[in-house]
């Protein structure tokens, strides 16, 4: 085991929180990749040799330091590669590191559902399950040609390789500033789906305004729902086109939320993160002749000018989209 996938709990989506914890990981290795809003990958190959300890043993040290210095617990998965470490994270809990057995990646993955594999979304999982490929073990023994016919040539080969324990990924050091996040905490554990949606509307409006202010667009939107028992669910979706349009972000946020199928969940906070940011002037956009869409975009432009002149509180996020 050389790769750790760490999720810090509980952690606010405040932009200043995650970098401090990434600094803790960087005391062991410079190869740290942020996984906003609350996680990171760390390559400990050099640290294992330097400290004479395994990655699992170093994970215990990291957990103690995070608690002592930041008051934050860790959920940690360990594996020989980034993919297996991220899958292992799903089976971890505070105080116990879930490690993939040495040389047993394929066996470890075999009983896992297909959605446990990073990159497999709801639509892909549904397609695979319709053909009886509901576990990674079944995917691993399925003919490559069958997978490629179901999900496409490139995606099918990647899925086949990963299900068989082949992990060509690597930890790429990055910066949290490549994304923007906002969180909406509730004063009490909230059961009402309407209040959840209003929080999403407000958060998406704020993200859109912040993206436009720095002339950026995002390609991916990530939703994190934190529950009363301190657990959390995180889902991501790639947008049809890069955007900073609040209405488009809101629609995607609603879709992510509805896909969770929450039934009277006691929600403590909802966070949204815009990821894969790029310059707005280099993004391509689909032409639209929808007068309603054009009107909303013009209203956004006016609201942005008002914020620039009178401050960010002049127009409340979430009041321009529905």
Mind explaining what this structure looks like?
Strand 7 (216-227) and strand 8 (232-243) form a beta hairpin. The chain has 322 residues and is of the alpha+beta class. It has 12 helices and 10 strands. The strands form 2 sheets. Strands 2-3-1-4-5 form a 5-stranded mixed sheet. Strands 6, 7, 8, 9 and 10 form a 5-stranded antiparallel sheet that branches. The termini are far apart. The longest helix has 21 residues, at 193-213. Helix content is 42%, strand content 22%. The model has no long low-confidence stretch (mean pLDDT 85).
Radius of gyration: 21 Å
Average of the residue pLDDT scores: 85
Poorly predicted runs are none
How many strands, what sense, and barrel or not for the largest sheet? Answer: 5 strands, mixed
Fraction of residues in β-strands = 15-25%
Note the gap between the termini.
47 Å
Give the total of beta strands: 10
Bin the helical content.
40-55%
Question: In brief, what are we looking at here?
Answer:
By secondary structure, this protein is an alpha+beta fold.
Question: SSE layout and pairings?
Answer:
Blueprint: E1 3-9, H1 17-25, E2 32-35, E3 39-43, H2 45-51, H3 55-70, E4 73-79, H4 82-89, E5 98-99, H5 105-110, H6 122-130, H7 136-141, H8 144-151, H9 153-163, E6 180-190, H10 193-213, E7 216-227, E8 232-243, H11 246-260, E9 267-275, E10 278-279, H12 291-310
Parallel strand pairs: 4-5
Antiparallel strand pairs: 1-3, 1-4, 2-3, 6-9, 7-8, 7-9, 7-10
Key features of this structure:
5-stranded mixed sheet, alpha+beta, 10 strands, 322 residues, 5-stranded antiparallel sheet, single chain, globular
């Amino acid at each position: 085991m050389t790769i750790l996938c760490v999720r810090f709990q509980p952690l606010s989506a405040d932009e200043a929180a995650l970098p401090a914890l990434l600094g803790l990981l960087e005391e062991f290795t410079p190869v740290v990749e942020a996984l906003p809003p609350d996680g990171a990958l760390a390559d400990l190959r050099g640290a294992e040799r330097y400290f004479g300890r395994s990655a699992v043993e170093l994970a215990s040290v990291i957990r103690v330091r995070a608690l002592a210095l930041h008051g934050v617990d860790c959920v940690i998965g360990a594996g020989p590669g980034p993919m297996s470490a991220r899958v292992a994270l799903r089976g971890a809990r505070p105080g116990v590191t879930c490690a993939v057995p040495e040389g047993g990646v394929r066996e470890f993955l075999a009983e896992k559902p297909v959605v446990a594999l990073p990159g497999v979304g709801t639509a892909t999982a549904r397609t695979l399950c319709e053909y009886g490929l509901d576990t990674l073990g079944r995917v691993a023994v399925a003919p490559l040609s069958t997978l490629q016919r179901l999900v496409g040539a490139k995606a099918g080969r990647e899925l086949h390789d990963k299900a068989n324990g082949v992990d060509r990924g690597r930890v790429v050091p990055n910066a949290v500033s490549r994304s923007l996040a906002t969180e909406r905490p509730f004063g009490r554990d909230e059961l009402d789906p309407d209040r959840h949606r209003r929080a999403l509307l407000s958060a998406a409006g704020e993200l859109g305004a912040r993206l436009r202010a720095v002339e950026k667009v995002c390609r991916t939107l990530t939703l994190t729902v934190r529950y009363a028992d301190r657990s959390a669910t995180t889902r991501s979706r790639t947008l049809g086109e890069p955007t900073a349009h609040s209405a488009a972000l809101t629609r995607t946020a609603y879709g992510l939320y509805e896909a969770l199928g929450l039934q009277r969940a006691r929600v403590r906070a909802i966070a949204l993160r815009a990821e894969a940011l790029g310059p707005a002037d280099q993004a391509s956009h689909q032409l639209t002749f929808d007068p309603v869409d054009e009107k909303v975009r013009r209203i956004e432009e006016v609201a942005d000018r008002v914020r620039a002149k009178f401050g960010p509180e002049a127009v409340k996020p979430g009041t321009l989209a529905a």
